[in-house]
Amino acid sequence: MLKLPNNTYVALTTTGNSPNALRIWYSPNLIKWEEKGYVFPNNEWPSWSESDFWAPEIHLVAGKYLVYFTAREKSKH
């Protein structure tokens, strides 16, 4: 979870094998949460990955939002 500059909050959640990976949630107060989409919608995840998206972290670095996560690498055979 990350506190944003406007004093609201964002959190990311694990989505496993869903075609929409890493759900994004926003909250004005840490009590009410609203789903706002996905980091990787509609199978648009990185080319090296294929499934099992989990353990996301979001950070604000030099004015940009960076997401770190774990995913299963595509088979190499």
Order of helices and strands: EEEEEE
Q: What is the count of helical runs?
A: 0
The secondary-structure class comes to: mainly beta
Helix % is under 10%
Q: Largest sheet at a glance?
A: 4 strands, antiparallel
Shape: elongated
Give the beta-strand count. 6
Question: What's the short story on this structure?
Answer:
The chain has 77 residues and is an all-beta fold. The protein has strands at residues 2-3, 9-13, 21-27, 34-40, 49-61, 64-73.
What topology emerges from the helices and strands here?
Layout: E1 2-3, E2 9-13, E3 21-27, E4 34-40, E5 49-61, E6 64-73
Antiparallel strand pairs: 1-2, 2-3, 3-4, 5-6
Keywords:
two-stranded antiparallel sheet; 0% helix; 77 residues; elongated; single chain; mainly beta
Describe this structure in words.
The chain has 77 residues and is mostly beta strands. The protein is built from no helices and six strands. The strands form two sheets. Strands 1-2-3-4 form a four-stranded antiparallel β-sheet, with no helix packed on it. A two-stranded antiparallel ribbon has the order 5-6. β1 and β2 (9-13) form a beta hairpin. The radius of gyration is 13 Å and the shape is elongated. The termini are far apart.
